[in-house]
Amino acid sequence: MPTVTRSDQSRLALIIALLIGTVLASAIAALAAAGASHATPVAVRAAAPAVALGAFDVAAPTPIEVTFAKPQPPQPTRHATASRTRPQPVRTTRAARPAATTSPLCSGPGWVERRGTAALAGLLHATPAGVTVSFLPGGGALKGMTYYDRHHVDVFVQSCARESDTLLRHVVAHEMGHAWDSVHMTDELRARYLAARGIATGTPWFGCNKCQDFATPAGDFAETYAQWQRGASDNRSTVAPAASPAQLASLGAEFFS
After folding, report:
1. How far is CA 225 from CA 73, 152, 236, in A?
2. pLDDT tens-digit series, residues 195-221
3. Collapsing DSSP states into helix, strand and coil, what is residue 214?
4. Strand partners, 96
5. Is the CB of residue 112 less than 8 Å from the CB of residue 92?
6. Is residue 40 one of the residues assigned to a domain?
């Protein structure tokens, strides 16, 4: 059997080491290649999202316009039974004037005389003695006229639609006051009347030429007489205030009876 020297052993160990190193190197290279082949897809898959994100980043984002409808106020609930037609305004009609066509004092032959006579009869006291009265159709501003020299009165009667019974009665009573004055009043009585009514002494009884009747002592006398005849509280005189009930009774007893 051949003898193995130390030198041969050393060479053999070196050869074996080289062989093992070569095998190990080959194995490591193979493993490295295999690892590289398996790692590439992972890298691609990992890079894919980055590429996709890059694509979105390149395009500029488009702004979105958002609008809202104008809010409507709450509408009242409509019931099924409610009418949808516009309500029509209620038109009122004036009541027909009473007695314009039915009363015999306002129509028919002789209605002027009948109406005037009824107004005269409605006064509280009798017509002054010696006085005559005529009732004539009226229509203007003139309601009545008294003629002192003849002691006569004209009353201009208007239709019931234009002159109420109350106004006509006032006109008749006023003219009766002038008629009483024309028959019964003297200068002395007129002076006493002025004092009783608080009118300045010496004030002309009939006033000035164009003075209104209510602004003269004669007109105040006729109005106060009419107030007494009607039992009223109103008096249209502008010379003195309306007489109180007590004053009216006193004036009636002294001057009107």
Report:
1. 71, 17, 12
2. 999 999 999 999 977 789 999 999 999
3. helix
4. none
5. no
6. no
Q: Which of 230, 250, 100, 249 is nearest to 171 (CA)?
A: 230
Helix (H, G, I), strand (E, B) or coil at 136: strand
The whole domain housing 103 covers: 98-163
- Tally of domains within the chain: 2
The letter for the amino acid at 122 is: G
Q: Is residue 142 part of a domain?
A: yes
Among residues 166, 143, 122, 165, the alpha carbon closest in space to that of 213 is found at 143
User: Does residue 109 lie in a domain region?
Assistant: yes
Tell me the per-residue pLDDT of 235-251, one tens digit each, with 9 for 90 and over: 999 999 999 999 999 99
Triad 155, 157, 159: Cα angle to 5°:
175
Compute φ and ψ for 212, nearest 5 degrees: -70, 150
CB of 123 within 8 A of CB of 114? no
Domain check: are 190 and 256 in the same one?
A: yes
pTM for the full model? Answer: 0.61
Q: How far apart are CA 120 and CA 136, in angstroms?
A: 14
The torsion of the CA quartet 219, 221, 224, 229, rounded to 10 degrees, works out to -110
Question: Own/partner pairs for 246-249, CB < 8 Å, 24+ apart?
Answer: 248/224
pLDDT surpasses 50 at 54:
no
d(CA 118, CA 165): 9
Residues whose CB falls within 8 Å of the CB of residue 60, separated by 6 or more in sequence, listed in order: none
Angstrom distances, CA of residue 3 to CA of 6, 7, 8, 11, 45: 10, 11, 10, 15, 64
pLDDT, position 177? 97
Rg of the Cα trace of the chain?
65
Dihedral through CA 162, CA 164, CA 169, CA 175, nearest 10? -20
Does residue 229 sit in helix, strand or coil?
Answer: helix
Same domain, 202 and 250: yes
